[in-house]
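Dear support,

Our group has been running a series of protein-ligand predictions, and this particular one with nicotinamide-adenine-dinucleotide is the one our PI (initials K.S.) wants archived with full inputs and outputs. We had some confusion internally about which version of the output was final, so please treat the block below as the authoritative record. The input we submitted was:
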Amino acid sequence: MKRYLVTGGAGFIGSHLVEGLLKRGNCVTIIDDLSTGNWSNIASLESNINFRAIIASADERQLLEREVPKHEFVYHLASAVGVKLIIDHPVETVQRIVRTTDSLVDVCTRYHIPLLLTSTSEVYGKSDRIPFSEDNDITIGATSKRRWAYASAKMLDEFLLLAHHYQTSLPVFIVRLFNTVGPKQTGQYGMVVPRFINAAIKNQPLEIYGDGKQQRCFCSVFDVVEALLKFDSAPQAIGQVINLGSNEEISIQQLAEKIINIVNSKSNLKFIPYEDVYGLDFDDMRRRVPDLTKAEKLLNWKPKTKLNEIIKQIYQNQYRK
Ligand SMILES: NC(=O)c1ccc[n+]([C@@H]2O[C@H](COP(=O)([O-])OP(=O)(O)OC[C@H]3O[C@@H](n4cnc5c(N)ncnc54)[C@H](O)[C@@H]3O)[C@@H](O)[C@H]2O)c1
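Confirmed final output from the archive:
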């Protein structure tokens, strides 16, 4: 039995990770301020004696000083997330991401506790070197375009962890997650799959932002969690940046059509210009595909679940209980 601390453990990915850790017989503490997470994601774990929830911000130094040393490994998932939230609340986005990581990595360094950070495929910015490989150069949009605040803050997080690793040998792991989907994800902050499934169930139009030809890859949260659980016993991954995601590409229009089909919905498609959703200075990237060579080599991991199966799983788990 090992003791794990998970920041953002009441969130979508965090709550699945916590379930995975507990199932393997470990003790888990989460710290979550419920800013985008939800108590309902972890409510079923409340009676588990190996589970403890602290509802607080993970940037509180005193709390971290008290909690971090009680654990043997820290998963740091707490973050502002979702394009809509980031565009609407850029100050909170940058501060929430950077302050929390800065506080946490300091305390982990003091007690030499291994730390895994969930970064994002957004850091690849406007690159068109497909597939995206971890050591590629990065081109981010102008600072006047607010969406890049998220990528830049996460990049700073990555630099911080790698700097601590370099200077103090703190065992750090950086995971760049590509679009991750599954039960419990909310569409509230702009996530496309739950937004489309919700609309399809209600036979409402599926709102496609832009021309719908932009392509993405969607990975099952269960596959992602399986990979996250491997890091603790993967010394070869210390100090590494590793992509995790699916490389099965689909356009957003095709995704909408697939969801309508699976849900057997009468919905139609409605195209909305980006500027109507995110304002005039919005930038997007056309494709985003991970190079998964490193994940396969260092973790012996590949995504298993096909998109059709993922959508059916979300629909059945979440909406047809
Ligand atoms: N879901 C994806 O497709 C995706 C893609 C790339 C990266 N990520 C990263 O994965 C992680 C988890 O994302 P998610 O999709 O589960 O989002 P989520 O919003 O469901 O989870 C984030 C959690 O962190 C909590 N939180 C935020 N700031 C906090 C703070 N200062 N202190 C304590 N708790 C705080 C929120 O309440 C929430 O529960 C994030 O770091 C995100 O950047 C997710």
